[in-house]
Amino acid sequence: MSDLKFTDRIDLRLRINDIDTHLEAIDARTSLLDLLREHVGLTGAKKGCNHGECGACTVLLDGRRVNGCLVLAAAVDGREVVTVEGLSDGEQLHPVQRAFIDCDAFQCGFCTPGQVISAVACIAEGHTTDEHEIREWMSGNICRCSSYPQIVEAVQAAAASENERIPS
Ligand code: FES
Ligand code: FES
């Protein structure tokens, strides 16, 4: 990738939501967010600021959350991406998605896909000890509607249901 010029077109092979995906002749300037939305048709990750400030574009890259608008698509060749579309199991919602609905953790919903992905990672990372810790580790995701209290509640509820499923 070091010899890549911005005028180049590139081929990419990556795994997206458990599907091996091959994309050809992608403009080397394409961000991961634009790759997902415009080339793969996955519009769950949203373009809020396009500057790494709002978290609406959050996806998992090899299991870690990243802002899709800040990652070049060329950098994800051979890697694994999970978007909000990849969380449910058919009609069965992911526990975090279910908790967001149960707790009414959104108003306009624009930030919700990024919040949900970030919440999944926040729980997997174990940053759910208390409200303060959840707020800190979810702070990269802005919600202009200020649904924060319900979002924290949803993360706590999903973390609790996760703990119930893991035998001690
Ligand atoms: S759109 Fe990527 S952080 Fe705002
Ligand atoms: S629900 Fe509207 S920005 Fe979060």
Would you kindly provide a written description of the structure presented here, covering whatever features stand out?
- Strand 3 and strand 4 form a beta hairpin.
- The chain is elongated.
- The longest helix is centred in the C-terminal third of the chain and has 18 residues.
- By secondary structure, it is of the alpha+beta class.
- Helix 3 packs across helix 5.
Helices and strands in order:
Layout: E1 9-16, E2 19-27, H1 32-40, E3 58-61, E4 64-67, E5 80-82, H2 95-102, H3 112-125, H4 131-137, H5 148-165
Parallel strand pairs: 1-5
Antiparallel strand pairs: 1-2, 3-4, 3-5
Helix pairs in contact: 2-5, 3-5
The structure holds FE2/S2 (inorganic) cluster (2 copies).
| Percent range for β-strand residues | 15-25%
Largest sheet: spatial strand order: 2-1-5-3-4
- Quick check: average pLDDT? 95
Helix and strand pattern: EEHEEEHHHH
Radius of gyration: 16 Å
Ligands and ions found: FE2/S2 (inorganic) cluster
Main sheet overview: 5 strands, mixed
Give the fraction of residues assigned to helices. 25-40%
Strand runs, count: 5
User: Which outline best applies?
Assistant: elongated
> Which class of secondary structure composition applies to the elements?
alpha+beta
Rounded to the nearest angstrom, the distance between the terminal CA atoms is: 45 Å
Task: Provide a brief overview of the structure.
This protein has 168 residues and is α+β, with helices and mostly antiparallel strands. Helices cover 33% and strands 17% of the residues.
Describe this protein with a few key phrases.
single chain; five-stranded mixed beta sheet; elongated; 168 residues; binds FE2/S2 (inorganic) cluster; 17% strand; alpha+beta
